[in-house]
Amino acid sequence: MRRWNGWGDTSITYELPEAAVGYLQGLLPAGDQSPDAALDDVLQTIPESRLREHPLVEHEPLARLLHARGQSLPDWIALRSGAIEAFPDGVAFPDRAEQVRELLAFAESSGVSVIPFGG
Q: Contacts by 99-106 with C-beta closer than 8 Å and gap 24+?
């Protein structure tokens, strides 16, 4: 399973080779490593959704968290630290054109924005 707040598989830990550690220590100033935010702690910070119910829209906190940020370095830093300022109110996974049209009509009638996620 993909890490919720980083790249890679949760069952695999990548150890940095000693030579790489020495190289990076020579380039970067010494500092304290920030602890990773705990998934359960971040889930507790997600506010209630403001969206009305729709059969194609998920309001579950985990789905909203996993779609709160993208894949850029600033996004991963925010996820790793738990410093996420905003969460989507819902997440949809349409798989047919008519579902996309239905979701866009729902968004328009609700006065909300639709933000595509992924590739």
A: 99/56, 102/56, 103/54, 103/56, 103/57, 106/54, 106/56, 106/57
Per DSSP, the residues of 60-92 read: -HHHHHHTSS-SSHHHHHHHHHT------S-EE
Nearest to 84 by CA among 41, 113, 52, 55: 41
pTM for the model = 0.80
pLDDT digits (tens, 9 = 90+) for 45-78: 999 999 999 999 999 999 999 999 988 889 989 9
Question: How does 11-45 read in b/e, with b if 16+ C-beta sit within 10 Å?
Answer: eeeeeeeeeeeeeeeeeeeeeeeeeebeeeebeee
Tell me the pLDDT band of 15, cut-offs 50, 70 and 90. Answer: confident
Predicted confidence (pLDDT) per residue in 19-28, tens digit = 999 999 899 8
